[in-house]
Each structure stands twice: as C-alpha cells, then as structure tokens.
Specification:
Chain lengths: 436, 309
C-alpha cells in the first residue's frame, strides 16, 4: 500500500459515510423521526401552556393581556401572527395536517374557508357554549359565532363600517352631519359645487367597494327583512329577485352617475383614498373603524380632524343600522381545550375587554359595559346601544366566492361594463354553486 | 528519432477493478442526499399535486372525491378562467416579442465604444435585480390617476395622454405588460451582450472588406450568430411571462374586474381565497403543460436557425 492510497482511502470512506449520514438525516427528517429543534410542543406540554395563531391586529391587542395573564397564572402563551390574508391561507393547511395552534383566528360566518361556519360544520372547533361570557354576546355576533346551536367563537373586538369625514371640509362647506339619504345627497351636491370630491372611493381591489354594499344593505335589506338570509338559503328569493338588493346597487349607481365618487376610482389604492380625505381633497370615505388610526395618521390634527357617522340609506333617520363585524378567536378541536378556555375566560373579564378595545381603538367584542378612552366612535355608540347593528351581509352567504364575485364583477359594474341585473345574476349563480 | 506515445500500463487484476468500480460509485453516492431531498420536496409533491387535479379536494381532512375531468372542463368553460387564459397568452406573446426586441436594441446600442456604456448597462439591468413585488408596489403608485406619470405628462404639455392606467380596463393590461418589459428588458440585454461578445470581430472585418454596409453586417453576420442568445432570451421570457403572478397581483389583483387576471392569479385565488385546491391544481397542471409545450416548440423552432461559427 502506498502512502497516497493510505491517505485517500480514509478520506473516501469519510466522504461516503458523510453522504450516507446526510441521506439518512434527510430521509428520517422527512419521515418525522428527527426533531430539528422544534421543541415548543414538548416543553409546552406541562401546566397551562397554550399556542395561539392570530392576525397582526389581534397580536397587537393581545400582547399586553398575554403578559398580564402569564404573570397572573404562571402559564405560558406562545403566540405567532400573520396578516389576515396569510393566516387564512395557512390555517386551512395547518388544520388539515394537524399542526394548527390551540387558539386560532377564524373569520365570521361562512366568509372564508377558515370561517366559523365552515370549520364548525367540519368539527374542527371546540364547543364554547358553557363559558359564562356567551351570555354577553350581542345577537348579531351570536348569529355569526354559532353553528347548530353551539357557540364556537369568542369575539375579541368588533369593527363597524362608518363614514369618516374631514371636519374642516364640512365646516368650510357649512354642512351638518347627514342623517337621511336625501340629506346625504344634498351634502354631496354642496361639496361637489365647492370643487371638493364628496366621497373618496379607493376601489382598486374592491375592498372599499364592499363596505358600500354592506352599509346600504344593512338598512335597506336587513332592516326591512331580517330573515333574508334564511329565505335565500331556502331558495325563496335571490339577489336578483329581491327589490331591496336592487335598491342597494341603485343607491351606489346614483352616487357614481352624479360624479360624487372619486374620478378614476378603480385605479385608486386604499392609502391614497384615505390621504385624499386627510388633505381635504375629498370630504368623506366609507371604511371600517379598525382603519381609523391609519386615517388619523395622515392628518396633522390626528383624530380630532375627523368625525364619523353611520351612513344613512333612506329618509328615516331611525332606520339606519350600523354594520358590525366581530373579530373572532376559536379553539382548535384537536387541542387540549383547558388552557385555551381559561385564557378566553381571562379575556372576557370586563377590564380585559376594555383593555383590548382601548389598545386597538375598536369596539368591545362582548356587549359588556366598559369605559372607552377614545370618543372617536362616540357618534355611533348610541345606535349600537339601541341594538341598531347588523352583521356584514356576506357573512351568512354560503361561502367566500359570492363576495369574491361581487368584488370582481362589481368593478365591471362600476365601470359600466355590466348592468345591475347581470351583477346580481352572477352573485346568484355563485350563491347557488356554494349551496350545492 | 521516433516518439511513441502510449497509455500508461493499466494496473490489472480483480482488486484494482473492484477499486475502480467503488471509486466510480462515489459521485453517485454523493448525489443521493440531494436527490432524496429533491424527490421529497419537488417530485413527490408535484406528482401528488397532479393527482389532486382530478379531485374536488378542498383542503379538508376527508379523502377528496374523484371528479374525473370536471376541473378541466370548468377551466375551459368558465368565462373568468377563459379570460385569464386569454390574458396569460396575450401577456406572454407581447412580452416575449417586445422585450426581446428592446433587449436586442439596447445590447446593440451599448455594445460600442460609448464612454458611459457600463453606467448605462447597469442602469438598464438594475430593475431586473429588484424583487417583482417591489416593482409592483412602485409602479402601482406611479400609475395611479394622481400619480407621478400623469403629473409628468401634464408638466410637459401632454396631459391629454394621462390615463387611469391600472383602473381602466381598456389600458390596464397594456400597463402591466409595459411594467414587465421595463423590468426585464435589461436581463434580455445582458443575454444579448454576452452573445455579442462571442461574435468574432474578424467576421465583421471580412464582411467590411467584401463591401458589406452596417445594416448588411448586422443582418448577415451579427443576427445569425445571435440565434443561440435569442433562444435563451425567448425561452426565459416566455416561461417567465406565462407563469406571471407577482406584479399582476400587487398592481391590480387581476382587476379592474377580470381585465388583468392571469392563470397564476386565478390559481392563487381558487386555492387560497376559495379553498378549491383540486380545481387550483388543475389550473397549475394546465399551466405547466402550456409552458412545456411553448418551451419545446420554441427550442425546436429556433435551433433550426442556429449557425455554427
């Protein structure tokens, strides 16, 4: 044997063994035999440990409460977050593969593949009906949290659709807050005459367009016929057949045709629409209350520069309803529910309901008497206190595809490429497909 | 004197043969981990995914139902999907043709003795280095009705040309195509510059001596020798534009309405918005077949024109 051969053979053997070792590691890792350091489940198994997967807004609001909870109970909460879109994409796969967290953010009603209604019917969520806080669910929230009589979700907060307006612009135009549809049209006409865009319409993507549909439908459709969802599900009526649904789109068309919505609305992204109201280029924007801090941030005067009101849809000021959406947490049925239920009980304590609402500037999730630091939503609180709230119209449609059709075909409708009958017909077709 | 070259004597015997055989196996053994990893993260999911295209899988625990060709029937009959297929093909063909021509023109212009050529090459190539999502957000802002492009047009007295670039369905698709070309023309330019470096200068000198003018040299010397570069440029552009997603999703989300929706965008929405994973996989499969067919046709077609130096 030569010296070279003596050197090369062990090296070769070493390479071969290294290759074999790597191959085994990869294979075993793939089969799940090698734990690559994800020890959160192992270590978290003892004494009140909880994993949570929430959206970024919930994460912000829950952070101080989790700290207090951990201090009070000695339990640990391992929380991770993503934007709602990303969370919706990932959660479905996590639930299917058995890797979802104990506590998860779910959408209301049937509005997405990871909504309470969808997951509840599949048995993916734990029944929370025995929790004491279920007595404090408002009717519209309960309708979205329940599946077959079981409460399956906890509302950490509620968002309302409100019309935000620039106070200075209204003052300069000598306008009062409109309380009826006629007053609203008069205000738009006065603003238009003053050379101000009455309504910022950042309809690129369709998100802000849907707020108009839900806000008007709340008063025009649901106040007139609270059983419309049951009737549609039973096939007794459709979007196209229902006169009130036609009226919703007629109202929006009236604003569009009068030129009260932003020019080039389908090309305007949300942030630019909000900025136009902040600068006074436009006077109003219909939006969700959770977005108000962003709007306030665009103006030097902050929150004081803006006011809000409930969008009227007819000429009876007492008929106006405010669309409200709960932001839900639910307990994964595959998880040990004890720690999650304890944590939800903690969140349901009135001081914690108030803490979350104040931290986020949103409405309290439960119908609990709480003191809010901010009076930004003050103008709509009397309506909510009187029970004049309604869920977003899309939540009890059979799935998210009807809404998606409304958003996309709605852009064609706004552009004039599709008439109202065509749009409602497409929504009906998608509704029927969702039921099959 | 005669020099005889011969192979060194080969060490004979069965032990040496076995040693050589073992040595020959080493490269293959070294490939095993990578192959296993590739098979696990690419091949297996791909094959499994192809199977889901024939099911109604909605991402739920229960076994998905077999639906035969229903997903494909829907894809070719649903107006939205047909529109997305048409948009995908329009984007792919127009991007491929225009981007290749622009890239070629830039390469020819900058393959010269210009003092600032390196600076210009860097400037034109820079957009290709940026992530498509960043490009999407950037141009979404530039192309808004009150954005910098319309402002600039107004400033130079061309306000009449101002458009709602992304919000008007008659111009939105063209706007998206222009952004894609703007981003990637620099990459095509680099491919052609590499090709131009390989054109022997003596061929140009010989042609010049034969009396060929500039246009004739370009047509009969340069372009034939650039066919391999053209093959690469066209293939990359075509494949990239057929599976285009990022810029479209960021700039328009497929809108207004369905005006800029591509197959990739529909695939994404069907899977992650609607939870229709089976249908979405069918779209992916069709898209893969389209890409494969186009790439194959293009490669075969262009190789006929390649010339040997």
């Amino acid at each position: 044997m030569t010296i070279d051969a003596a050197r090369s053979r062990p090296a070769r053997v070493l390479i071969q063994r290294a290759a074999l070792g790597t191959a085994l590691a990869v294979t075993l890792g793939a089969c799940g035999f090698v734990n690559s350091g994800d020890d959160s489940t192992e270590e978290g198994g003892s004494g009140g440990s909880l994993t949570a997967y929430v959206n970024t807004e919930q994460n912000t609001g829950l952070a101080p409460l989790i700290e207090a909870y951990e201090e009070e109970t000695g339990a640990t909460v391992d929380i991770s977050s993503a934007t709602t879109d990303e969370l919706n994409q990932q959660l479905r796969v996590q639930l299917t593969s058995g890797t979802a967290a104990d506590l998860i953010r779910v959408s209301p009603g049937n509005s997405s593949p990871v909504a309470v209604g969808v997951l509840g019917r599949e048995g993916e969520l734990t029944d929370l009906s025995d929790a004491s806080w279920t007595d404090e669910l408002s009717d519209d929230t309960r309708a979205l949290a329940e599946v077959d009589g079981q409460v399956l979700a906890f509302p950490v907060s509620r968002n309302a659709i409100v019309m935000a307006y620039n106070r200075q612009v209204f003052e300069d135009a000598g306008l009062e807050v409109p309380t009826t549809w006629s007053e609203f049209l008069d205000a738009c006409a006065a603003l238009d005459a003053a050379g101000i865009t009455p309504i910022a319409a950042p309809f690129q993507g369709g998100i802000y367009f849907q707020f108009w549909v839900y806000a008007l439908a709340g008063t025009l459709v649901y106040a007139e016929n609270p059983d419309i969802d049951e009737q549609m599900a039973a096939g007794e009526t459709t979007f196209a057949e229902n006169a009130e649904w036609g009226q919703v789109f007629a109202r929006i068309a009236e604003l569009r045709d009068a030129g009260y919505l932003s020019d080039g609305m389908l090309g305007i992204p949300a942030d630019q629409g909000l900025q136009s109201v902040a600068t006074g280029e436009a006077a109003m924007v219909l939006m969700v209350s959770a977005g108000l801090p962003q709007l306030h941030g665009y103006a030097e005067g902050g929150a004081d520069a803006f006011g809000v009101f409930a969008l009227p849809a007819n000429d009876d000021p007492e008929a106006t309803l405010v669309p409200v959406a709960p932001d839900f947490l639910a307990v994964n049925a595959a998880a040990d529910p004890e720690a999650a239920l304890e944590f939800l009980d903690f969140l349901a304590q009135p001081e914690n309901v108030a803490a979350y609402a104040n931290e986020m500037g949103v409405l309290p999730g439960l119908a609990t008497e709480v003191e809010l630091d901010s009076d930004v939503l003050g103008p709509i609180e009397p309506l909510l206190a009187d029970g004049r709230s309604v869920a977003y119209a899309n939540y009890l449609w059979p799935n998210g595809d009807v809404q998606q059709t409304m958003l996309q075909s709605g852009q064609e409708w706004l552009d004039g490429a599709l008439d109202t009958a065509g749009l409602l017909g497409q929504m009906d077709a998608e509704y029927a497909r969702g039921q099959s | 004197m005669t020099l005889t070259l011969s192979r060194p004597a080969v060490d004979g015997g069965p032990r040496a043969t076995r040693r050589r055989a073992r040595r020959a196996r080493v490269p293959y053994l070294l490939l095993v981990p990578a192959l296993l990893f590739y098979a696990f993260v690419v091949l297996w999911p791909t094959l499994q995914g192809a199977g889901y295209a024939f099911t109604d899988w909605a991402g739920r625990r229960e076994t998905p139902g077999f639906v035969g060709l229903d997903n494909f029937t829907e894809l070719f009959s649903a107006p939205a999907a047909r529109s997305a297929l048409r948009n995908t093909l329009i984007i792919a063909l127009s991007t491929t043709i225009v981007q290749t021509l622009v890239g070629l023109a830039l390469a020819l212009a900058l393959h010269s003795a210009l003092a600032s050529r390196n600076l210009l090459r860097t400037m034109f190539f820079a957009p290709a280095l940026l992530p498509p999502v960043i490009i999407g957000f950037l141009w979404q802002y530039i192309l808004t009705p009150a954005g910098p492009l319309n402002d600039a047009l107004g400033a130079v007295g061309l306000g009449g040309l101002a458009q709602n670039w992304l919000g008007d369905s008659s111009v939105a698709l063209a706007s998206v195509i222009a952004v894609i070309i703007w981003q990637n023309a620099g990459l095509t330019m680099v491919i052609y510059l590499a090709g131009l470096e390989g054109v022997p200068p003596e061929l140009h000198e010989a042609a010049t001596m034969d009396g060929a003018g500039r246009w004739q040299r370009l047509r009969h010397v340069t372009l034939p020798l650039l066919v391999p570069a053209t093959t690469i440029a066209l293939s990359l552009t075509l494949i990239g534009s057929l599976k285009l997603f990022d810029q479209v999703y960021v700039m328009t989300g497929g809108g207004p309405g369905y005006a800029t929706e591509t197959l990739s965008v529909v695939m994404y929405k069907e899977a992650f918005v609607s939870g229709r994973y089976g249908y979405s996989t069918a779209i992916a499969l069709v898209l893969t077949m389209i890409v494969f067919a186009f790439a194959l046709l293009q490669l075969r077609g262009l190789r006929r024109f390649e010339v040997q130096q």
